[in-house]
Design a protein that fits this description.
About 10% of the residues lie in helices and about 55% in strands. It is mainly beta. It starts with a helix and ends with a strand.
Length: about 150
C-alpha cells in the first residue's frame, strides 16, 4: 500500500510538471534586455575598507549570450560609470558563470567574475560576484528584446 501511495504522488507531481528540475539552455537568456541592480558592500581598492555600494544599469544579451552592460555604481557616495562586456556560460541546471571585462569612468578596471542562477524562464537572473572584496548580490529583470 505504501508503494502505491508513492506511485500516485509521483504521477500527480509528474503531471503537474513538478518532478523534473528546470532545464535552461543558452537560448533562455539570449537576445534579451535586462534592468540590472546590485546591492552590498565592496572594497574600492585592495586592502581598503568595505563601503556600501549600489548599482543600477541595463544589460543586453546577444544570440550567443554575450552580455553588454552599462550603468552607474555608487561606492560609499562616489558615483562611477561602469561598462561590462562578457561571454556567459550557462549550464542545463540553470546555473551559469560569466567573466566581465569592465571599465570605470572609461578607464580599465579588474575583471568581474559572477556566478548566477536563471529563474522564471530567463525573466530573472540572480548573480553573485565572487571576487575578493565584494559582498554584492545582483538581480537582472528582463524588460524585452533588443
Amino acid at each position: 500500500m505504501h508503494r502505491s501511495t508513492i506511485a500516485i504522488a509521483a504521477a500527480i507531481l509528474s503531471s503537474q510538471g513538478l518532478s523534473a528540475a528546470p532545464v535552461c539552455t543558452s537560448a533562455t537568456t539570449s537576445n534579451s534586455t535586462y534592468v540590472a541592480t546590485c546591492q552590498g558592500p565592496l572594497s574600492p581598492a585592495p586592502g581598503a575598507p568595505m563601503q556600501p555600494a549600489s548599482l543600477l544599469g541595463t544589460c543586453t544579451s546577444s544570440s550567443t549570450n554575450v552580455f553588454s552592460c552599462i550603468g552607474f555604481i555608487n561606492v560609499g557616495g562616489s558615483v562611477l560609470q561602469q561598462t561590462l562586456n562578457g561571454q556567459a556560460t550557462q549550464f542545463d541546471n540553470c546555473y551559469g558563470i560569466i567573466t566581465y571585462k569592465q571599465t570605470l569612468n572609461g578607464g580599465p578596471a579588474p575583471d568581474l567574475h559572477i556566478t548566477y542562477v536563471v529563474a522564471e524562464n530567463g525573466n530573472t537572473i540572480y548573480g553573485l560576484p565572487y571576487d575578493q572584496g565584494q559582498v554584492l548580490t545582483c538581480t537582472l529583470h528582463r524588460t524585452g528584446t533588443p
